[in-house]
Design brief:
Helix content is about 35%, strand content about 25%. With about 350 residues, it is an alpha/beta fold. It has a single domain, classed as LigB-like (Protocatechuate 4,5-dioxygenase, Chain B, 3-Layer(aba) Sandwich). The strands form five sheets. Strands 3, 6, 7, 10, 13, 14, 15, 16 and 17 form a nine-stranded mixed sheet that branches. A two-stranded antiparallel ribbon has the order 1-2. The longest helix is centred in the first third of the chain and has 25 residues. The two termini are about 20 Å apart.
């Protein structure tokens, strides 16, 4: 906090939100089969602690009659529900009009590669770039992924300013609280210049913020890649540390906190999703931290971004409201992306 005359100022977390960012959100429902074909070729589908090829997964889940949820009319209705919630979130963020947006997301070989993969990283540079949609690169990608590139990348390079002072405050708090995190002040170099910020940030700024230059704090988690993914308990504690750093920041700025990604994918597990989302709504921390780490594999691992965010918001009196939960199936074996949308108000 700081004082001007008799007035006292301190940073305040005024809003939280969580949003899925999966490719199906930006893919027409009749084109979801483009990714389903890749599912059929994938020999390693992660589901409830096991690993299956497509035929094994189909047999395992045959009794669930998932074909009924994979019908085009169902896909279309669920896609519509997702767009409704994205529009609603965009409007609520505009109403809150935050001074800073802190985004908890995962990096999927966009900035970090096998030469170094931090478990937790805070970016404290002055800005980041969301690079323009690259049609040549899109054409070389797996079928269906070009749709998601269009949703996360602007027509031309877009610079997003960052709130470096708050990021440094978080780094200081992390060291004080004995989190040995990575601190990044400039993007890694790429073949055409600095690498652009990844999809976890790009989707939020493109789809929800309409590329408004609201200062950003990127918090990047390694959820996908062994062997150094943090466990759920450590993710929650990391979030609590960030929450303390924000509330101790001497500023009069209003902060919004975002969980980008999740929930279960690329095999949908509605039972897991409902358990985790219910625990967040009820403030049931024990259920969150007791969830076995091998449940957080593949895209489902992005649910840890929500756990970090829940930890951040635990230092406030904001409560979680689940706006909608939409399981978007793209195959009869249960592959696809479950989408969740929530606010903390």
């Amino acid at each position: 906090m700081f004082y001007i005359g008799e007035y006292k100022f301190m940073a305040e977390i005024v809003f939280g939100f969580g949003t899925a960012h999966g490719p199906l959100l930006s893919t027409p429902p009749d084109k979801w089969d483009l990714r389903a074909e890749a599912d059929r070729q994938n020999p390693r589908h992660a589901f409830r602690g096991g690993t299956y090829n497509y035929d094994e997964l189909f047999k395992l889940r045959e009794a669930e009659n998932l074909a009924a949820q994979n019908a085009l009319e169902v896909r279309t209705e669920r896609h519509r529900r997702c767009q409704t919630q994205l529009d609603k979130l965009s409007g609520q963020i505009a109403d809150v009009n935050p001074d800073v947006v802190l985004i908890v997301g995962d990096d999927q070989r966009e900035w970090y590669t096998e030469d170094i993969q931090p478990a937790f990283s805070i970016y404290y540079g002055e800005d980041v770039v969301n690079t323009a949609y690259d049609e040549e690169k899109a054409m070389s990608m797996a079928p269906g992924l070009a749709y998601s590139m269009q949703a996360t990348h602007p027509p031309k390079d877009q610079v997003y300013p960052c709130e470096a002072e708050l990021a440094e405050k978080i780094i200081e708090q992390a060291i004080e609280d004995e989190f040995d995190i990575s601190a990044s002040k400039c993007p890694p170099p790429g073949p055409k210049g600095p690498k652009g910020i990844g999809h976890a940030v790009g989707f939020v700024y493109r789809r929800l913020l309409n590329d408004q230059p609201i200062p950003l704090v990127p918090v990047l988690i390694n959820t996908f890649f062994p062997p150094n993914q943090a466990k759920p308990k450590r993710c929650y504690e990391f979030g609590q540390m960030i929450g303390r750093a924000i509330t101790n920041w001497q500023s009069d700025k209003k902060i919004a906190v975002c969980a980008s990604g999740g929930v279960s994918h690329f095999v949908i597990d509605e039972e897991f999703d409902h358990r985790i989302l219910k625990a967040m709504q009820e403030g049931d921390v024990q259920t969150l931290i007791d969830e076995p780490n091998d449940m957080f594999r593949s895209g489902t691992s992005e649910t840890k971004n929500w756990i970090v965010t829940a930890g951040i918001l635990s230092v406030t009196d904001l409560g979680m409201n689940l706006l909608d939960y939409v399981p978007c199936y793209r195959s009869d074996a249960g592959t696809g992306n479950a989408m969740a949308f929530a606010t903390w108000t």
